[in-house]
Specification:
Elements lengths: L4 E4 L2 E4 H12 L1 H19 L5 H25 L1 H4 L17 H22 L2 H21 L6 H9 L1 H11 L4 H24 L1 H6 L13 H17 L2 H4 L5 H24 L2 H27 L1
Antiparallel strand pairs: 1-2
């Protein structure tokens, strides 16, 4: 069957290409990682008694809210995205999608996602998702061109997913939820700084100064990255200290933190982009593995 064509601007594109544009607009892979983190928070809260219906609502609502945040971000930064190699082919800077269309999509995703979480799960879940959306869109996004502290600002809503998942199960914020939040909060610094190290030259084209050091890829940036990564090691024992997990789980979490820290130490010693790339990929592995270990502790 021939693919349906949709006319955009002055030339038609295939339906599959249109879907790809929306995948880019929502940053599908990033949104999926956020949804995974929220799901882990929910199962950690509920253990083996979790409800599939609630989990699916959480994942759908969480994806829509995250996709909305990412879409709003691209609307705001569309002219800046044109300047960077990694973002120039996104649908807005490339001219494959109009600003009004992207705005409508952003609003629809945001409103529907918040309502799904608010009405389908509980009010606190909806409120937290709305707060996250507002902070990310109205504070973090414009701050990226103003100060390296934008990473700190973005870390507050960025750590909401496991907290949101916990609240979906318990209807309140508990101590274990705060530990989940703190772990993801700290993780974001080496995660984003590793990405910023790799993409530093590209970021500068748009005026983004994401690394914490005064000279970008310098010893100061590497040192701060290393310190935050090392901080994840003792945090692995917090769930044990409050009797949320056992010793075996704590040791596994600590081992993940140590391996992640070794990557940060290598970057501090070398200041090489190749080591920043290893740290970046390590950050993508660290968080889901840690959350999976924590979740399995609740199920077995």
């Amino acid at each position: 069957m021939a693919q349906k064509s949709i006319a955009l601007s002055d030339k038609p594109v295939t339906l599959s290409a249109r879907i790809q544009d929306y995948i880019q607009l929502t940053k599908f892979r990033l949104s999926s990682l956020v949804v995974f983190s929220a799901a882990m928070g929910y199962i950690i809260a509920e253990g083996a008694g979790f409800q599939w219906s609630t989990l699916l609502l959480l994942m759908l609502g969480g994806f829509l809210v995250t996709g909305s945040s990412n879409a709003f971000n691209q609307v705001i930064e569309r002219d800046l995205d044109k300047l960077m190699d990694r973002t120039a082919n996104r649908p807005l800077p490339a001219g494959r999608m109009s600003v009004p269309e992207a705005l409508v999509a952003s609003v629809l995703m945001g409103v529907s996602g918040v309502l799904i979480l608010w009405l389908g799960i509980n009010a606190l879940c909806g409120i937290l998702s709305l707060v996250s959306l507002v902070i990310y869109t109205t504070i973090y996004t414009p701050a990226k061109r103003v100060t390296p502290f934008a990473v700190l600002i973005g870390a507050f809503p960025g750590a909401f997913p496991p907290l949101l998942g916990w609240v979906a199960g318990k209807g309140e914020i508990g101590l274990e939820a705060l530990i989940l939040y703190a772990l993801q909060f700290i993780w974001q610094f080496p995660h984003f700084w590793a990405i910023a190290w790799v993409l530093h030259d590209d970021y500068l084209k748009a005026g983004f100064r994401m690394l914490p050091g005064p000279h970008g890829r310098d010893r100061s940036s590497a040192f701060q990255t290393m310190v935050y990564t090392l901080g994840l090691v003792p945090m692995a024992f917090l769930p044990l200290a409050f009797h949320f997990t056992g010793w075996f789980t704590a040791l596994l979490l600590a081992a993940c933190g140590i391996y992640f820290s070794l990557q940060a130490i290598r970057l501090y010693r070398s200041l090489e982009i190749k080591d920043a790339q290893k740290l970046m990929f390590g950050s993508f592995i660290y968080l889901p593995v840690v959350q999976l270990i924590w979740m399995l502790d609740k199920l077995v």
